[in-house]
Amino acid sequence: MDKPLDIASLIDREPLRLYQWGIFLLCFVTAVFDGFDTQAIAFTGPAIVAAFGLHAGDLAPILIAGTLGMTIGAMTLGLVGDRIGRRPALLAGIAVFSIASLLTAWAGNTVQILILRFIAGLGMGGCTPVLLALAAEYGSAQRRGAIMTGVLLGLPAGAMLGGLLAARMMPVIGWQGVFVVGGAAPLLFLVVLYFALPESLQYLASRSDHASTRRVSKTLRRIVTVALPADATFKVAGKATRASVTALFANGNARNTVAIWAVYLCNWVAWFMFLSWLPTVLKAAGLPVAQAPMGTVIVNAVFIVCAIPLSLLLPKVNTRRLLMVLLGLGIAIAVGLAYAGTTWGLVFALAGAAGLGIGGQQIALNYLVVGAYPTTLRATATGWAIGMGRVGAIAGSAVGGTVLAQGGPSGFYLALAVPLAAAMFAVMAIRTTGRVADGELVVAH
């Protein structure tokens, strides 16, 4: 056959098959385990402080070590996924965070916990961009936003599952038991993934060797109804580019890359400053300590509820304008919280709305990044963008306590508006038409 077949076009013409739903489910469950282990240290933190006779502030280096590991993991494992394949990169990431989490249960001191949390972070942070790239490439362009969002929701779902386990079971199994569950369960699931998870079709097609072409053809026959010639060859949309960080700044990508990184950085400063310190802020404002964690639960719940409708909206709107609206909403919420005082009904309503106004940008940004780069750069671009977000997460988590101490609850909430405003200016620098064409989001250079 002379003319190569375009994989994305073939998938776009078909409804989603059971085979594809199976892949999305595998990615979602992986994200659940990732989210569980990511938040495990937060749930077990008070017990660890008590077990080792620490002060509450002594837990900060352990929290930062995990986030630093996730930052490096997101930046490196995405690149590995573009170089050697999504499947081996994902399996390696899961093995790393599972084993490190399991070993944490037998840590004898806080130095060992810090080191293991950094190692676990490498795997946890690295899995996210690879998961998103793999799931996106098995879905059609029209459903890509919803697919990516559905997979991404595994992270807060895992966090909520971990919170429930910690609240109900930690008195019985101890803080060590949480890490045993968080390590052993994904290790068992890794066996399932080894046999059930396929490689990215676009990645295989980019290799252009006979064995990879046969694997693409075999897999596509489980997705498409059109008859594929025995000698079919395949292509992927976009210019073939070797995966590297420098490639993110080549071919007219530089402006958008810098702008997208800035949005991730600033938005995650606000998001993680808000999430990490909200229970403490609510307690400082006068809410009983037993009720303070409910703020975080409400924020995550609203994020999950809003995420799917938002993802369905993404292919139909200008993503840049949507980001501007969400950031404006986030600023308004921050100001509202600053003046809500102890009217707890209003405080919780606004805190819940922050799940969309401060957290919803992540959904739109992930969709934007996947569509803005060719498949050979997709996991790299996603990984580095998320990595920049992780840097913001470290900064937001680190400065939140200082801001609260100096400005009180009102000053804390008002401070959230600063990085959100900076993110809004960065969005203005992104050049995009905000439409989908030939399976890709068209981003102007």
UniProtKB/TrEMBL annotation:
Domain Major facilitator superfamily (MFS) profile, chain residue ranges per copy: 23-434
Chief location bin: membrane
Protein's name according to its UniProt entry: MFS transporter
Position of the signal peptide: none
InterPro entries the record matches: MFS (IPR011701), MFS_dom (IPR020846), MFS_trans_sf (IPR036259), Sugar_transporter_CS (IPR005829)
UniProt-annotated location(s): Membrane
Native organism: Paraburkholderia antibiotica
Topology relative to the membrane: Multi-pass membrane protein
GO cellular component: plasma membrane
GO molecular function, one term: carboxylic acid transmembrane transporter activity
Keywords assigned by UniProt, alphabetized: Membrane, Transmembrane, Transmembrane helix
Stretches that traverse the bilayer: 21-54, 60-80, 89-108, 114-134, 146-167, 173-197, 258-277, 297-315, 322-340, 346-369, 381-405, 411-430
